[in-house]
Design goal:
By secondary structure, this protein is α+β, with helices and mostly antiparallel strands. It has a domain of 156 residues. The chain has a four-stranded antiparallel beta sheet, with helices on one face. The longest helix has 70 residues. The radius of gyration is 37 Å and the shape is rod-shaped.
C-alpha cells in the first residue's frame, strides 16, 4: 500500500483505489472495484480557498459506509451534506442583508464555487446511487444533494438579479442627474446669451448713469440692492432647477397611437 495515498491507512480497500488517487482529491467522482465504492468529495469551499479539501467515503460490499474524518454509518454523509447546507444558509443571510453592489458581489463570488461544488456533489452521488443499485440510503443522499444544488442555484440567481437591478437603478439615477445638469447648463447658456450684448455694450461705452441714488441716505441703497439681488437669485435658482423629465420615446412619433381591435 502506498504511503502517499490520502485514504486512511486502516481502510481495507482495493489497491486500485490508492493507485488512481494522487496527492489531492482531484475532482469529485466515484470509483468501483470488487464490490467496493469509493466516493471522492470536497469539503464546502471557503472564500479565497484555491485548493479544495478532500473528503472520502468508502462503502464496502456489505453496504457499510465509512468516512475519512466524519465517522461511520449514514450519519457521516449526513454531516457532510449539512456542512453544505450551513454554508448556503450563511450566504443566504448575507444576501438578505446586502445593500450595496459590493456586498452583493461578495455573496456572488462565494456562491460561485459553492454552486459548482454542490452540482458536482449531486452528480457524484447520482453515480454512486447507480453503482450501488437500489440502495435507499444512497437514493436519499442523492436527493438531498439535489436539494442543495437547487438551493445554491436559486440563491446565486437571486443575488445576481439583485445586483443587476441595483446597477440598473444606479444607472437610471445617474442618467436623471446628467439630464438635470444638462437642462441647467442649457438654461444658463440662454441667460448668458440674452444678457451678453447688454454687458458688452455697457463695457464698451460705459453705464455711469445719473439715477439719483448717489445722493440717497446711506445705507438704504446698499441694503436695497442686496435684497433685490437676493430675490433675483432665488428666482434664477428656481428657473434653473425646475424639473424637466425627458420625453418618452414612441414607436412612430409623438402622435402615434396603437390601433385598437374591435
Amino acid at each position: 500500500m502506498s504511503t502517499a495515498s490520502p485514504l486512511p491507512m486502516s481502510w481495507e480497500v482495493p489497491q486500485i483505489f490508492h493507485q488512481r488517487l494522487g496527492d489531492g482529491p482531484g475532482r469529485q467522482r466515484v470509483m468501483q472495484a470488487d464490490g467496493h465504492l469509493l466516493i471522492v468529495t470536497h469539503r464546502p469551499p471557503r472564500h479565497g480557498e484555491r485548493v479544495r479539501g478532500g473528503r472520502y467515503f468508502w462503502r464496502n460490499p456489505a453496504g457499510t459506509l465509512q468516512s475519512s474524518d466524519l465517522g461511520q454509518g449514514p450519519s457521516s454523509m449526513i454531516k457532510h451534506l449539512e456542512e453544505y447546507n450551513a454554508a448556503i444558509a450563511k450566504l443566504e443571510k448575507a444576501e438578505n442583508d446586502a445593500q450595496s453592489s459590493e456586498e452583493y458581489f461578495r455573496v456572488i463570488s462565494e456562491l460561485g464555487p459553492l454552486l459548482r461544488a454542490t452540482r458536482n456533489l449531486h452528480s457524484t452521488l447520482q453515480s454512486a446511487r447507480e453503482l450501488s443499485g437500489n440502495d435507499r440510503t444512497m437514493i436519499n443522499f442523492r436527493d438531498r444533494s439535489y436539494d442543495l444544488e437547487r438551493s445554491a442555484e436559486l440563491l446565486y440567481n437571486e443575488a445576481k438579479n439583485e445586483l443587476d437591478f441595483l446597477i440598473a437603478q444606479r444607472t437610471e439615477q445617474q442618467a436623471a442627474s446628467s439630464h438635470r445638469m444638462a437642462v441647467s447648463a442649457h438654461r444658463l447658456n440662454i441667460l448668458a446669451a440674452f444678457f451678453f450684448p447688454m454687458v458688452t455694450l455697457a463695457t464698451i461705452f460705459g453705464s455711469s448713469l445719473q439715477h439719483g441714488w448717489e445722493t440717497a441716505n446711506a445705507p438704504v441703497p446698499f441694503f436695497t440692492m442686496l435684497i433685490v439681488g437676493f430675490v433675483l437669485g432665488l428666482l434664477l435658482n428656481w428657473f434653473i432647477n425646475v424639473p424637466v423629465s425627458p420625453k418618452p420615446r414612441t414607436r412612430h412619433g409623438a402622435d402615434a397611437r396603437i390601433p385598437r381591435t374591435p
